[in-house]
UniProtKB/TrEMBL annotation:
Lineage: superkingdom: Eukaryota
Major location category of this protein: endoplasmic reticulum
Organism: Drosophila ananassae
Swiss-Prot/TrEMBL cofactor(s): heme
Family under the similarity heading: Belongs to the cytochrome P450 family.
Residues noted as binding heme in the record, renumbered to the chain: 443
Key words, A-Z: Endoplasmic reticulum, Heme, Iron, Membrane, Metal-binding, Microsome, Monooxygenase, Oxidoreductase
Compartmental location: Endoplasmic reticulum membrane; Microsome membrane
Cellular component GO terms, alphabetical: endoplasmic reticulum membrane
GO function terms (MF aspect): heme binding; iron ion binding; monooxygenase activity; oxidoreductase activity, acting on paired donors, with incorporation or reduction of molecular oxygen
UniProt protein name: Uncharacterized protein
Length: 526
C-alpha cells in the first residue's frame, strides 16, 4: 500500500527529472546562443506574452537585448533558435535537406493536409516540380485579367463605402477582394465574396483563417488534443466540412466535365472556366507516372486558397495604409501612373505596363520590409545539422523572424524610415530581407502575389487620394509609427503618443493589425 502511495507521489517528480535529464544535453549543445534563462517545466513560455501582439513585441525585445544576433528560447522542453544572421539563413534556406516545417504548421493539416506548404521529403520534391509550371508567365497573364476585373469591382465598392469622407477599416475590405481573386484563379469559380459577404462559403474561408491565426500562439488551443475538447471545436469542424465539401465538389464537377470532353463554361456558368490553370494543371498532371489522387488535388488547391488569400490581404492592406501615412511617396507613385498610363487613368493596366511601374515595385519591396505579410517561418531539425561550424541538434526548432529582419540597422540604415529608394542605394543581400523566403522552399506564388499587389495598388492610386483616418496623422518625418525594434526607452516614449488609429501589429501566421487599418479615400476626378 505504502509503496503505491509513494510511487504516486513520486511520479510527477520522476517525469520532471526525466525531462530535465533529457533536455540537459540539448541545452549544453546550444549553450553558445544567448537568450532568456528558462525556468523548469515552462522554459520561457511564462515570459513570451499572451496575445499575438505581445508575442511579437517580446521577439523584438529579446532580439534587441541579444545584440540583434541569433538567440535561443525554450517553450517547455522544446528549444527554439531564432536565426537572423544572413550567412546562417543562406545555409538554412538553401538546404535541400532541412526542409521539414516546424510544428506550428501542424495546425494547417486538418484543412490543407500535406500540400506544398506543409509537406516535406520526396512528396514535397515531386509536387514542387509538378506545380512550378502552373506559375508560368503565360498563365500569369491570364490571371491578370481576373485581378483586373476584381480590382475594378473593388474600386466601385470602395467609392460607395468611402463617400462623405468616411473612415474605413481597409484591412476588412481587402479580405473579400483577395478571396475573390484566389477562388477564381485556383478553382475557376467566382464566389463573389465582395458582393455576398455573408454567404456560407465566404464566411467559412474567413472563419478558418481566423481560427488558424488565433490558435497559432495560443498556449492551449494549439494542441489538437486540448482544442478538440473545447466547445468551439464543433464550430471548427463545421467550418472545415463546409470548405472540404465545397472544394471536393468543384474538383468532382471538373473531373466529370473533362471526362465528357465538354467545354464547361458555356454549359454551366458555375463551372470552372477555360482559363483556369491551377486546378486544370493539377488534373492533367502526373506524379511517378500516375495521375494525382482526389485527396492530393484537394490538398494543393486548398493550399493555394490559404496561402494565396491571407497573405495578399495583408500585403494589399498594409501597402494602402502606408500610402495614407506617406503623402509624398503617394504623389511620386501617382506621377508614375500618369507617365505609364497616359491620358486614360481609368482603364486596366496591361501586364507590360505593370512591369514598367518601377517606383511601385520599390514601394512594395519597402512595404514588405516593414510589414512582411508572413512574419515568421520555421523549420524543424529532423537530425543534427552543422550550420557554419555550429551543430544544431536534432529536435531544435528554427524560427526565421521575417518581421524582425527588416529592422536590422546593420543592413538597413535608419530602418524606421519608410524609404522605397533604399532598395536602389542600399542593395540588401539575397538573405538579408526575404519576405517571400528564399531557396528551394521559397514562395512559389511570388510572381502571382506581386502582380496582384501591383494591379490593386496601381488602381487604388489612380482612383483615390488615400488619406489618413484623420488629418494630423501624416508621417511628418517619413518615419513609421511602428515602434517595435527601437531601444526600450525610445519605444516607451513614442508609444506614449500612440494614436488609436496607429496599427497594433499582431504576428500570427500572417501579419495583421489588431485594431484594423483605418484610412479615408478621396475620389480622383478626371
Ligand atoms: C504577399 C503575398 C505573399 C507572401 C509575402 C508570401 C510569402 C511566402 C513565404 C515567406 C513562404 C515560405 C513559407 C515557409 O517556408 O514556411 C511562402 C510559401 C508558399 N507560398 Fe507564398 N506568399 C505570398 C503569396 C502567395 C500566393 C498568392 C500563393 C499562391 C497563389 C502562394 C503560395 C505559396 C505556396 C504554395 C508556398 C509553399 C511553397 C513550398 O513550400 O514549396 N503564396 N510564401
Amino acid at each position: 500500500m505504502w509503496f503505491f502511495v509513494l510511487a504516486l507521489l513520486a511520479s510527477p517528480l520522476l517525469v520532471f527529472l526525466y525531462f530535465e535529464l533529457k533536455t540537459s544535453n540539448h541545452r549544453r549543445r546550444l549553450k553558445k546562443f544567448p537568450g532568456p534563462t528558462p525556468v523548469p517545466v515552462l522554459g520561457n513560455a511564462n515570459r513570451i506574452g499572451k496575445t499575438p501582439a505581445e508575442i511579437l513585441a517580446t521577439f523584438f525585445n529579446w532580439w534587441y537585448d541579444y545584440g540583434k544576433e541569433n538567440f535561443l528560447f525554450w517553450i517547455g522542453y522544446s528549444a527554439h533558435l531564432v536565426v537572423t544572421e544572413p550567412t546562417d539563413l543562406e545555409y538554412i534556406l538553401n538546404s535541400q535537406e532541412l526542409i521539414q516545417k516546424s510544428t506550428i504548421y501542424n495546425l494547417l493539416h486538418p484543412w490543407l493536409g500535406s500540400g506544398l506548404l506543409t509537406s516535406y521529403g520526396s512528396k514535397w520534391h515531386k509536387h514542387r516540380k509538378m506545380i512550378t509550371p502552373s506559375f508560368h508567365f503565360n498563365i500569369l497573364q491570364d490571371f491578370h485579367q481576373v485581378m483586373n476585373e476584381n480590382s475594378t469591382k473593388f474600386i466601385s465598392q470602395l467609392k460607395k463605402a468611402a463617400a462623405g469622407s468616411s473612415i474605413l477599416d481597409f484591412q476588412e475590405h481587402a479580405n473579400y477582394l483577395t478571396l475573390d481573386v484566389i477562388c477564381d484563379t485556383a478553382m475557376g469559380v467566382p464566389i463573389n465574396a465582395m458582393e455576398e459577404r455573408d454567404s456560407t462559403i465566404v464566411q467559412a474561408f474567413r472563419q478558418m483563417c481566423y481560427i488558424l491565426n488565433m490558435r497559432a500562439f495560443h498556449p492551449f488551443k494549439r494542441s489538437h488534443r486540448i482544442y478538440s475538447m473545447l466547445p468551439e471545436f464543433a464550430d471548427f469542424q463545421r467550418t472545415l466540412k463546409t470548405l472540404q465539401d465545397f472544394t471536393y465538389d468543384i474538383i468532382e464537377k471538373r473531373v466529370i466535365a473533362l471526362q465528357n470532353g465538354i467545354s464547361t463554361t458555356e454549359k454551366d456558368p458555375s463551372m470552372p472556366k477555360k482559363k483556369l490553370a491551377f486546378l486544370d494543371a493539377l488534373l492533367s498532371s502526373t506524379v511517378d507516372g500516375r495521375p494525382l489522387t482526389r485527396k492530393e488535388i484537394y490538398e494543393e488547391v486548398s493550399t493555394f486558397m490559404f496561402e494565396g488569400h491571407d497573405t495578399t490581404t495583408s500585403g494589399v492592406s498594409f501597402g494602402v495604409y502606408l500610402l495614407s501615412r506617406h503623402p509624398d511617396i503617394q504623389q511620386k507613385l501617382y506621377q508614375e501612373q500618369i507617365e505609364v498610363m497616359g491620358n486614360d487613368m481609368n482603364r486596366d493596366a496591361t501586364f507590360q505596363e505593370i512591369a514598367q511601374m518601377k517606383h511601385l515595385d520599390l514601394f512594395i519591396k519597402e512595404a514588405q520590409r516593414v510589414y512582411p505579410s508572413v512574419p515568421f517561418i520555421g523549420r524543424y531539425c529532423d537530425k543534427d545539422y552543422t550550420i557554419n561550424g555550429t551543430v544544431i541538434p536534432k529536435g531544435t526548432t528554427i524560427n526565421i523572424p521575417l518581421a524582425l529582419m527588416g529592422y536590422n540597422d546593420r543592413v538597413f540604415k535608419d530602418p524606421h524610415h519608410f524609404r522605397p529608394e533604399r532598395f536602389l542605394d542600399e542593395k540588401p543581400g539575397p538573405f538579408e530581407c526575404v519576405p517571400f523566403s528564399a531557396g528551394p522552399r521559397n514562395c512559389i506564388g511570388q510572381k502571382f502575389a506581386l502582380l496582384e499587389l501591383k494591379t490593386v495598388i496601381s488602381k487604388m492610386i489612380r482612383s483615390f487620394e488615400v488619406l489618413p483616418a484623420i488629418e494630423g496623422l501624416y508621417s511628418r518625418d517619413g518615419r513609421l509609427n511602428t515602434y517595435l525594434g527601437l531601444s526600450p526607452g525610445e519605444r516607451l516614449k513614442r508609444e506614449a503618443g500612440r494614436h488609436k488609429y496607429d496599427p497594433i501589429l499582431s504576428a500570427v501566421l500572417t501579419l495583421k493589425s489588431d485594431n484594423g487599418l483605418h484610412l479615408r479615400l478621396k475620389e480622383r476626378v478626371y
